[in-house]
Design a protein that fits this description.
The structure holds two protein chains of two kinds.
Chain A: E1 43-46, E2 52-58, E3 64-68, E4 90-94, H1 112-125, E5 130-135, H2 138-148, E6 153-159, H3 169-185, H4 187-198, H5 201-222, H6 225-235, H7 242-245, E7 252-257, H8 265-274, E8 279-283, H9 290-293, H10 295-322
Parallel strand pairs in A: 3-4, 3-5, 5-6, 6-7, 7-8
Antiparallel strand pairs in A: 1-2, 2-4
Chain B: H1 5-19, H2 34-37, H3 41-55, H4 71-85
Helix pairs in contact in B: 1-3, 1-4
The chains are: A alpha/beta, B mainly alpha.
Chain lengths: 327, 91
């Protein structure tokens, strides 16, 4: 590609001009008017305090991968970026409390409720053990769940996690800024800031105005300012606590876009130093949301990680069964 | 030739059907928010790209939020753009 030439994108949920990003098939439930159909095909389960969690299950594999939304995502969004994973895995996506089609709450949220909600969800749908994919803020939920219930986590996929191996200060400052933007300028101002920050230069060039405008319409339709404010405020109550990362006992993949505003070469190296056996995948032509920006690479790396983990587990079981020492 | 709003809306509806592969048979209420109908962001972006290609203009990134929220409002925006490009006396 020469300088000034508009980049085109393949294998991405972010369509480029001249491309076609229409995703895979979803179930059709017939024509309906004035109903929010984004949340069709899913179910609801109840958490301990009566909060209902909306969830969707796709795929029929023996291995389960559970997706944790970040604060600006809803469960149906995973459909368009997981068509390959769906072929071999059982996929679970759900809305956090006070998000999407899960119960809307009034007043303050407690971050630790997200961890218990996940446990209730897995109990409800009969999943004993799962791989967990946390992205941005929800990587902290995935991390804390893995520490609280290690027997239920086969592996962690931390995709553009919002925590830092150095500590919380930068994330807290960013979140304070987002709350300020929301309170003073509203959702549109917050969207403008997040769009510029989260998507790579490549995505923004290839997507152009249609991507900016199209994503904005959906962003503003899906999230209310009250929800976002409460969710951001709850995120301010949790700390990055890098020492927690040293306690992880499950296989862990850290996946970041190569222009993720939160990650650098040195912070990736620091993560590898403190997380035992950490695998790192850097996704090209992607920022903070590699699954949306470079879907094919995202799916390939996620699947490769899970398949390697499963092979390792099978080898360990075999070694135990045959009484031979582990290699 | 004068731009006919109904023609544009009909064409856009057919275009949306062609890119919204998840729900090829779903009724599209032109006054309903597309997000509420279940049109995901990637589909909406593809739709907007197709409109640019078909009508040979580029979307203005300074369009106010809500301009592209329904099929009706998108049709209005397209008609406005086309009429701006019409030679004088073409209306």
């Amino acid at each position: 590609m020469t300088a000034g030439q508009r980049p085109s994108r393949q294998g991405s949920a972010v369509p480029s001009r001249g491309g076609d990003g229409a995703g895979g098939a979803a179930r059709h439930h017939g024509p309906t008017r004035n109903v929010d159909l984004r949340f069709e095909g899913g179910n609801r389960c109840q958490s301990a305090d009566g909060v209902e969690l909306y969830y969707e299950i796709r795929g029929t594999g023996d291995v389960t991968l559970t997706f944790l939304n970040h604060l600006f995502l809803v469960a149906p969004a995973w459909r368009t970026v997981t068509s390959e994973l769906e072929q071999s895995l059982r996929l679970v996506a759900y809305d956090l409390r006070n998000q999407g089609a899960s119960t809307r709450l009034h007043g303050a949220l407690t971050w630790s409720d997200h961890v218990e909600d996940l446990r209730h969800l897995l109990d409800c749908i009969g999943v004993e053990r799962t791989y967990l994919l946390g992205t941005s803020m929800s990587a902290m939920i995935a991390r804390d769940f893995a520490l609280a219930y290690p027997e239920r986590v086969a592996g962690l996929l931390l995709v553009g996690p919002a925590f830092s191996p150095y500590g919380s200060q930068r994330r807290l400052a960013l979140t304070r800024t987002w709350i300020y933007l929301l309170e003073t300028g509203g959702m549109e101002v917050l969207y403008n800031h997040l769009y510029a920050l989260c998507f790579s230069d490549f995505s923004q060039e290839s997507g152009g105005s249609p991507m900016y405008l199209g994503f904005r319409e959906v962003f503003l339709a899906v999230h209310s300012p009250e929800q976002v404010l409460a969710n951001l405020a709850a995120a301010q109550s949790v700390r990055d606590e890098p020492e927690k990362l040293t306690q992880l006992s499950c296989p862990t993949l850290l996946m970041v876009g190569d222009t993720d505003f939160l990650w650098s070469t040195s912070s990736l190296t620091e993560m590898q130093r403190i997380v035992r056996g950490l695998r790192v995948a850097v996704i090209p032509r992607a920022g903070h949301l590699p699954y949306a920006e470079n879907t094919s690479d995202f799916e390939r790396e996620a699947l490769r990680f899970i398949e390697d983990c499963e092979q390792q587990r099978a080898a360990e079981r075999l070694a135990v069964a045959s009484g031979s020492p582990r290699r | 030739m004068a731009v006919d709003r109904e023609d544009v809306r009909r064409e856009l509806k057919a275009m949306l059907r062609s890119v919204w592969r998840q729900h090829p048979d779903r009724e599209i209420d032109p006054s309903a928010p597309l997000a509420a109908l279940g049109v995901e962001s990637s589909t909406l972006v593809t739709f907007l790209v197709r409109i640019e290609d078909r009508f040979r203009f580029s979307w203005d990134p300074d369009l106010p939020a809500g301009t592209l929220s329904t099929l009706d409002s998108i049709s209005d925006a397209v008609v406005d753009r086309l009429r701006l490009a019409e030679p004088a006396g073409g209306r």
